[in-house]
Amino acid sequence: MRNIILFLVSIVMLSGCSKLRPYRVDVQQGNIVDAASRAKLRLGMSKGAVNSLLGTPVLVDTFDPNTWIYAYTKQINGGRIDKKRLILKFKSNKLAQIK
Fold first, then answer.
1. Three-state helix/strand/coil letters over 40-65
2. How far apart are CA 12 and CA 26, in angstroms?
3. What is the pTM of this model?
4. Quick one: which H or E segment has residue 70?
5. Under CATH, which number does the domain 23-98 receive?
6. Would you say 26 and 75 are in contact if contact means Cβ atoms under 8 Å apart?
7. Span 41-56, pLDDT tens digits
8. Which of 4, 31, 79, 90 could cysteine-pair with 70, CB 3.0–4.6 Å?
9. How far apart are CA 97 and CA 99, in angstroms?
């Protein structure tokens, strides 16, 4: 009886081992800036209007607070990482450059 229980426990423990690739969680980080929102950006917009449209930027340059960086990364099932970045520069509180 003891051997049967040991055998069953072994089977259950080994069933977790598999040569199949384990599932990994999809990871999204940063600001999702879709094409429609990006198309609405216009030079001369105020910081408030840009913030309303795109949300708070992920990064504001420490040495130049007039540079806002919207960064986004996405990794599906542990695969390659897709990166997107949008850099906005302001002059006199107005959008002056879109990169």
1. CCCCCCEHHHHHHHHCCCCEECCCCC
2. 28
3. 0.72
4. strand 67-75
5. 3.30.1450
6. yes
7. 999 999 999 999 999 9
8. 31
9. 7
